[in-house]
Amino acid sequence: MANEEDDPIIQEIDVFLARSLLEKLYLFQYPIRPASMTYDDVTHLSAKIKPKQQKVELEMAIDTLNPNYCRSKGEQIALNVDGTCTDETSTYSSKLMDKQTFCSSQAASNVSRYAAAVYKKGELHLTPLHGILQLRPSFTYLDKADAKHREREAANEGGDSSQDEAEDDVKQITVRFSRPETEQARQRRVQSYEFLQKRQAEEHWVHLHYYGLKDSRSEHERQYLFSQGHGLAENTELIKSPSEYLMMLMPPSIEEENDKPVAPSNVLSMAQLRTLPLADQIKILMKNVKVMPFANLMSLLGSGTDSTAVLRCIQQVAMLVQGNWVVKSDVLYPKDTSSPHSGVPAEVLCRGRDFVMWKFTQDRWVVRKEVAAVTRLCPEDVKDFLEHMSVARINKGWEFMLPYDEDFVKKHPDIVQRQHMLWMGIQAKLEKVYNLLKEHLTPKKQESQSARPLLVSGEQRVNMAKAKVKQNYGQLEKEFQKQKAEMTASDTSAKVDVSSIRIKEEPLSDEEPMDTSAYEGMNNGVVNGLHAEDSMDSLNGHLPGGCVDRVAQELKAFVLSTFKKQFVLTLSELKRLFNLHLASLPPGHTLFSGISDKMLQDMVLDTGCKQILVPFPPQTAASPDELKVYALWEAGDTYDQHRRVLLEIFSKNYRVRRNVIQSQLSQECGEDLNKQEVDRVLK
């Protein structure tokens, strides 16, 4: 009562129900209009409707004089659609895209709760809506443009010779006699998507006359939105009790039996699905999906669903194969149905599909010829069975489409055991029906361990690769020891004391040392490629005798050969290539004496390369080594000048358009480069 006193009634308005436009009034919802299009009385060129489907098409004009309209684009679209010649069949007679077609779709299936209201002189007049249609742009003109393009291509090809045409006319024809259509097959055909599309296409369009907002006919029709009589006799609907009146405004949602989709139905929404009992939900989902992990099924059923109840229901409509649930054959092929391909009864189809499912419980791979030989069904039926639960692999067969669900098997061992017992019973039945041989019952040797796929983790692969590298380097070490012994015996005076060699240390440098940790495991007791059995004395990073010159020569040769192959490299990529180069060298090579980042960068600059200061964006996630870019400034070929211009362009911006690069090259070099030459420079 206190709330009612705080919210007093300000005004009472009489409500009238207008009936003149009953079952004739539609609400059109237009999309957000572009700046070059206005929804007024001059823009509608034509309109047509299919009354049974409540489908409308409106053709509206586009203001081509609007400054926001792109005229060149409009001319290009008109040229693609109609070509160069214009006639009566042309979509755009003005050689310009000057109109747009809008096609409708139903916004709501039940519009009985919606009405159009008009307020006038203290009275509210309501007219029930017969439909709410959303208008969206139609792009059928693009299909017409594609058809024109294909016709032009066919005309350019010119056709084949008369001899080829004569050979093409001779074709082998397979004749099939159709069986009488059963009632169940006719019902499935009537409910199919193709049949509904065909029936909708058969309905003819009814052309309409459009009247603008200020037209006298529109003004006349607008008067029908008002109730024609205010007498109580014509508004008996409003003389109701409050409960009856609310019932009229908000009627209960009652679905007729013939409106309910027959499961499975591809048009059943998730909202409608969740109104059904749990068992029906699972049956419809499995019938449509056919193969599904248990975790995916739980996510489709929504939060709060009891997993125990789901497990109880899923076993009634599906069987467990490799930890995943596959719909039962008798659910897909009910009693008294037959194959649409061969006409065999459902009982035979169920046996054949059960054999395929049982084969997948034994192995991940199934051969189609083997299934056809055992079941003696037509190839189309066998292909349907396999497509339900597997994927074809070239030269291998058919592989089960989902990976082995190890999590479900571990969590529910009781379900797995129960399903195993069921499969044992099915196997015994299949042995009697098909007289299965021993080769059909036992999997092949290489696949007999488990139907579970062999999975190798990345860490295992790395360990295997390291073990292989260690084995190879062990052999190389033995060869090195043998060569070392021969050299010691032949010339002891020429022996180089490599035991004193250390990794070069540069404490004053700001550069980080090169990361060669990936190769520590490959040296097999070798420090930077040199053996450390003897005692080693530090030489402060300097090599004895002429080793420094040899290291510089080897490093320079590597840098030159690398930049001759790849003209631009980051420091990170250069270090990676250097590590690969070290891995290919034998133990004891001079380059193992320790090469720091600074030595490598100095050698790059000494060989004629330059560092390109590319202005990368500040928010980049690249490492510092990836931001250091070096390029070969002079290679001695004809593209040195072009390459320098290109590097100067990228020193100003890290992302440049191709046309800008081509124009800059032509301007700086004084010659017009074709596409192939520009591609070669960019590469």
From TrEMBL:
Pfam families xref list: RPC5 (PF04801), RPC5_C (PF19725)
Biological process annotations from GO: tRNA transcription by RNA polymerase III
Biased composition (Basic and acidic residues): 146-155
Residue ranges occupied by any DNA-directed RNA polymerase III subunit RPC5 C-terminal domain in the UniProt entry: 444-683
GO cellular component, one term: RNA polymerase III complex
InterPro entries the record matches: RNA_pol_III_Rpc5, RPC5_C
Highest taxon of the lineage: Eukaryota
Disordered, as annotated region: 146-169
Transmembrane segments: none
Protein name: RPC5 polymerase
Organism: Rhinopomastus cyanomelas
Protein encoded by which gene: Polr3e
